[in-house]
Amino acid sequence: MGPAVVLLVVLYAVPIVLDGYYSLTSDQFGGGGKFVGAGNYVAVANSGLFWRSVENNAIFTVLTVGGGTVLALGVALLLSGSFVGKGIYRFVIYLPQSVSFASGAVIWTWLFNAQNGPIDAALNRVGLPGPAWLTDPHLALLSIVIMSWWRDIGFYMVVLIAAIENVPQLLIEAARVDGARRFGVFRHVTLPSIRPAMLFVVLTWGLGALQMFTQAFIMTNGGPVESTYTVVLKIYNDAFQALNLGLGAAEAFVLLGVCIVVGVFAVRWFSRGLEHT
Amino acid sequence: MGAKMRAPATLLTATAALLASTIAATPAHAAQPVTITFLNTGANPQVIEYFDRTVIPGFERSHPGISVQMSTVDWGDSFTKIQTAVVAGTADDVFLMGNIFLPVLVSKHGLYPLTKLVAKWPVARQLNQPALHAGAWDNVQYGVPVQLDVRGLIYNKTMFKQAGISAAPTDWAQYQADATKLVQKSGGQVKVEGADWAIDNSVGLAQTFNLLISEAGGQLFRNGKGGRATFTGDSPAGTRALEYLQSFYKQGLSSTSFVDVGSTPTPVALGEAAMEMNNAASFSQASPAVAKQLVMTAPLSAGPGAKPVGQEFVNKLGIYARTKHPLQAWAFVKYLYTPSVLSHWDQMLGEAPPLASLADQAPWNKGVFHAMVENEQYAKVFPVELQSTTIDEDLTRVVQAVIYQKTPVAAALSEMKSMLTPLLK
Amino acid sequence: MRATTTSRAALPPAPLMAAVGEGEGPRAAVRGRAGRATARRALRVAGRHAVALVVALFFLVPMLVALVTSFKTNASALTGDVLSLPSSIHLGSYGDVFSLGGFAGFTKVSVVVSVVSTVVQVSLSTLAGYGFARYSFRGRTFLFSLVLLTLMLPPTALALPLFLEMLHFPLAGGNSISGAGGTGLLNTYPGLMAPYLVSGFSIFLARQFFMSLPDEPGEAARVDGCREWSVFWRVYRPLATPLIVIETLFAFQTAWIDFLWPLIVAKGPSLYTLQVGLSTFQQEFTAQWADIMAAAIVASLPIMLIFIFGQRYLRRGIAWSGGR
Q1: Residue B370 and which of A171, A175, B59, C146 are 20 to 30 A apart at CA?
Q2: Percentage of chain A exceeding pLDDT 70
Q3: Is C66 helix (H, G, I), strand (E, B) or coil?
Q4: Quick one: CATH architecture of A2-276?
Q5: Best interface-test mutation with A: which of B202, B246, B257 has the largest number of A CBs within 10 A?
Q6: Higher per-residue confidence, A144 vs B272
Q7: Which of A120-124, A183-187, B9-13 has the least mean pLDDT?
């Protein structure tokens, strides 16, 4: 316990406090910064690109986590219970987890390539026009969502399968005896029983989505026309390219605030549901 | 067993011999042996092998007492790496910098002043002078040029022939007319892009805009005293440049979906675009069949009779301000200008050498390499400001909005001005 | 309908599969209503397989494309028909990756960094989670909020402050007690491992895990005279295998795939990790897609191996992590 707390303080608390301090200065990394009070936060508030990034992040999170949770749940229902070959299916769906986001992003950049990528080549072969994916401002963010689903659904599927298979068989039988149909059983028995697992999925996936960076950095660098710019990409560019430590820190703290609000909201929403059952 | 018995005697002899040879080889006045470190930015596996096997052993042989340890980093991550290392005091003694690194590293007190060393160095006078000047900031020399990324017009002669075009375009109007013919020939929907304008995940569009505004007789920035600059892109030349660029997308002569994504080849290299402004990269990326169809020639002029204007990006070697061995580092820098070394190195990277004396030697006297060396005469050095990394990112985003026709040209120029003015302070 | 649904759940898989073959035969007709139900059931199973197959392809094809591309030559990967299989298996790209100068060194650094930081992170997080779950002490809520806080800031945002902290680490790398004069923990193994030595997520998982275990076995051991350490080591640790497996995977993966941190902390190739070393295949002005894919596959290999061999334990671990 002791060593973990010491390391946690040294490796996390100190940088967080330092970052909080930098957010109040004009530190240019290595050049002595001046205390500027809320100056950086005002700059963040006035930055059109920052708010565009927040908007993109919100859409990305809702699509990735919202859509992804439904898909993961669907796959989990499909592959739970008695089903020959479910092990192989589960393994295959779970396999992309072993690929890093960076490698995955490189692979999907290639797959989505509108000129000679395999996806459009396959579509063309069956006579369909291939969309421009990453170079179409309306599709680029969705393309990154698809890639993120590919990478992460497997993990959350396993979480949900376990929860579904843990639902007491007795409850299900009882519901059936009461005349519930398949969907009724799902809605009134399975879903309420797996609420804690759903909270875990939404919370961890949501926090990850709010911090999305690698995919946007590698696949689109925020383009086209800012349609995939994310908050962490902005933080990276301000902190590492412009070495504007103060501005990057202020943006990080705004993001921290958003994450806390979303986290608390998610916990509340799911716990309220729990009290009813 | 016998071998073991003889071991002590052999060991003794060997030690004595070794001792003797060490004493003989080390002149009494020789300095302590030192190791210098070298960050070879952008080295591909071929270059790494060449340095490991040939360049570094060659240098160490001719400079006893100095050894060199090389690291590499790709261009995309090099700015982050070098900047943080310079601030932290862990930078390499010698490093290769991209075109835009110099001012910011000077501002972090990261570069060793080379003015006096360069003045005493005969090779300096044979170097491409604009490129050498690009290594100076506030009248102090901080970097020396080793590679010139010289851009020219590249076209696919087979596609030209099919479209009935007999000669390479030399000005804007011809270029656009040829692009129209090329697209019509390949049939309505842009199957083959008439002209490609270097859309990528990096700052290609900022560079394109810079080239076009130069050709139109304007400039992006006017430099003032003490490294201060003013944005001058919102001029008639800026308007002309952006409108010209946008018209290719409006008329369907270029397509936004032809993107050079990181390590993918350029559309011209893939045989999907007919023309572009680029360096020799398209030749090295193309399959042999496509490479045979490509020709590099002079860049464009804005109108008939005007002089062509191209651009070049200068990679420079710098020495770390806090190095413990500046003179040994400088000796290594000078060694890299050995004509055969420089020539081979630059050839592997597809960039032109800044050394005029190489121009009439192979491979620089033939084909695309010759065209690059020829194009040096038209090339304007890409201007660099203190905040160039941010400036290029911002410019790219605005130009992207223009070609996607989300922002009108006039609005784009005033957005550039309001975004860049605070950065140029 | 209700009855058949219930009985299907109880049916073992093998008879189900057999039923597919029998469904439309004469015997089914003899059996009448029961036969129609079997046929419907068979159809349902077939439908389920069809959906599962489509879903599985979405996850499998990208990996296969990467694999197939890595066996092409660089030239044919780009210009040939992208959908075609290579005419012969070309191992040149793997040769390029393995013969890269320093490859062995990068691998060694990656292994050392990942293994050591995993061991440290897993032991510390498990103990810390145990402490949070089993003991009440002053400041527990505050400390646990700190743990949760670390989940809400992206590592990218904390990289520069942590970098400056490592640079000015007192009495390390030539630094004075006030942290000036030297390069601190930069370009050292401890500096390279710093962000992975402890993880809020791991502590969080461990706390949740130990909270879900009953108190009684521990109490019983205490009555038998066990010290606190023995209670943990003898009673609870053996129960924690799924937790430890999943912590290990997360810790190893984080350290193994990180790029930005080793890029700025390691000065040269002697401390470059595999991810940093292999980035040399993604150069500007080159287009060696077969090499890039081979490098990506080689870099993912250890994690894929952990996956394949530790599958059963992993699934239990992950399953557990969301279950509570």
Answers
A1: B59
A2: 96
A3: helix
A4: Orthogonal Bundle (1.10)
A5: B257
A6: A144
A7: B9-13
Which residue of chain A has the CA closest to B423? A242
**Which residue is it, tokens 């002089």?**
B307
Smallest CA-to-CA distance from C273 within C187, C211, C146 is with C187
d(CA B244, CA C111): 54
- Residues in C closer than 8 angstroms to B74, CB to CB, are 279-280, 282-284
Domains of chain B: 34-150+313-376 (3.40.190.10), 152-312+383-424 (3.40.190.10)
What 3 state SS string does chain A have? Answer: CHHHHHHHHHHHHHHHHHHHHHCCECCCCCCCCCECCCHHHHHHHCCHHHHHHHHHHHHHHHHHHHHHHHHHHHHHHHCCCCCCCHHHHHHHHHHHHHCCHHHHHHHHHHHHCCCCCHHHHHHHHCCCCCCCHHHCCCCHHHHHHHHHHHHHHHHHHHHHHHHHHHCCHHHHHHHHHCCCCHHHHHHHHHHHHCHHHHHHHHHHHHHHHHCCCHHHHHHCCCCCCCCCCCHHHHHHHHHHHCCCHHHHHHHHHHHHHHHHHHHHHHHHHHHHHHHHC
Whether C263 sits inside 8 A of B89 (CB atoms) is no
Whether A223 sits inside 8 A of B201 (CB atoms) is: yes
Chain C, 206 to 245: residues with Cβ < 8 Å from chain A are: none
Q: Over range A111-139, report the average pLDDT.
A: 87
The 10s digit of each residue's pLDDT in B264-315 is 778 898 888 999 998 888 888 888 888 999 999 999 999 888 889 999 999 9
CA atoms of C224 and C218, how far apart (whole Å): 10
For position B378, what pLDDT does the model report? 93
List, run by run, the mean pLDDT of 10-residue segments along chain C (324 residues).
32 30 39 73 88 94 88 73 75 83 88 95 92 86 85 84 89 81 89 92 87 84 86 86 85 89 89 85 67 84 80 70 54
Cβ atoms of residues C236 and C161 within 8 Å: no
**Could you read off the pLDDT of B145-189 as tens digits, one per residue?**
999 999 999 999 999 999 999 999 999 999 999 999 998 877 666
Residue A207: C-alpha distances to residues A9, A12, A247, B170, C153 (Å): 22, 17, 22, 54, 9
Q: How far apart are CA A139 and CA A148, in angstroms?
A: 14
Write down the pTM of the prediction: 0.87
List Cβ neighbours of B122 (8 Å cut-off, separation of 6 or more).
none
Is B397 part of the contact surface with chain A (CB cutoff 8 Å)?
yes
A and B: number of Cβ contacts within 8 A: 75
> How far is the alpha carbon of B398 from chain A, nearest alpha carbon, in Å?
8
Q: Which residues does residue B153 pair with via DSSP β-bridges, in sequence order?
A: B277, B297
For residue B337, what are its two tokens?
A: 């200008």
Asked whether the beta carbons of residue C303 and residue A5 sit closer than 8 angstroms, the reply is: no
Q: What is the pLDDT of residue C321?
A: 65
Lowest mean pLDDT among A157-166, B94-103, B334-343: A157-166
- Cross-chain Cβ contact B256/A218 below 8 Å: no
CATH topology (fold) of C94-323 = MetI-like fold (1.10.3720)
pLDDT at A158: 85
What is the residue extent of each domain of chain A?
Answer: 2-276
Rounded alpha-carbon distances, angstroms, from residue C121 to B196, B225, C165, C295: 50, 54, 20, 28
Domain parsing of chain C, residue ranges:
2-62, 94-323
Closest-CA residue of C relative to B268 is C79
Q: Which two tokens stand for residue A43?
A: 């700059």
Return the pLDDT at A277.
37
Spatial separation of the C-alpha atoms in residues B108 and B114, rounded to whole Å: 16
Check: CB of residue B312 under 8 Å from CB of residue B379: yes
| Interface predicted TM-score (ipTM) | 0.89
Average pLDDT of span A185-206: 88
